[in-house]
Fold:
Amino acid sequence: MKRERSNILNLRMDELKEALAAINEPQWRAAQLHQWLFSHRAGSFDDMTTLSLPLRRKLAESFYIQQPVTEKHDETMEGSPAGATEKLLIQLPDGERVETVLIPGPNRMTACVSAQAGCLLGCSFCATGQMGFRRNLSSGEITGQVWALSDMLQERNREASISNIVFMGMGEPLLNTANVIEAVLNLSTRKYRFSTSQRKITISTVGITPEIDRLADTGLKTKLAVSLHSAIQEKREALMPQAARQYPLDRLRESLIGYASKTGEPVTLAYMLLKGINDSEMDAKRLIRYASGFFCKINLIDYNPIVNIKFEPVCDGTRERFRDILQDAGLQVTIRKSYGTPINAACGQLAADCTGNSDNL
Ligand code: SF4
Structure:
């Protein structure tokens, strides 16, 4: 029986080797083929002129090459001194949609990418969580988001390039770890046409502890950010029910201590300040206790409004008071500005227009 053809861009390097072995080709060809796909971005097997004609034919019998398509572009200048924040809605070959965001900053250009279509974890402040889980993205689909943003940037200015990548878009990266790591390799170590330093890539998680432990052992130089949002177990469970119950704060702290000591890198603890929920002096003191004793820094972030979700951001005074309490205790604290709120491109707002957020445009 003839096997159905599949999209070769969905395969990781290890899977590509297996696929070549299955058609009686040596595995070492995988690197060559991978380079055609992910550096030259060949649109057809006929373009792969360094591969023999019989091999190209065999590949075309088993696979096709289909890249994601940009369906919609939005941009806003609001609150962004370094240029417009831009959001792309990307349609994947099977019709699923994800969003990806380009955020200009002083001396940097950051791509914020999605790792999953939807999300299983349903955090109460997050639009993606309202969508439910659709599926994991392949490494090619993650890599393709950076290409799409990079192409958009370079069409306007050949000299411009993406310097930083953050896995802070839709979905939980560490529930799709193998494909996220493969995408990191595509975008850094392999030195392909698009390449940045691993140190400029941040993987952001709600705290999937076994995967944090695994990441610490990979030798990757990527940075780790953890969405903490409360250092009090009950409050965290109210905000992020699934993640907080499955990976309690004590266990999470063990993983973070292990990660920081193995990698020698600080962990960033992201703390979204929510009015009347986690913004009191007592909350700050619990955070100090939690964050003391291991190599970390704290990013205070604002809540960005989401349709059907009733949290409120704190005022400037509350944010500054909270920061001062942490700083007085010796913690390294940054107030991180959010960009892209008017186009629902800021933290927690990405939902591939499934929540009706597009009505606000
Ligand atoms: S915050 Fe992250 S983990 Fe939580 S629902 Fe949103 S995408 Fe999922």
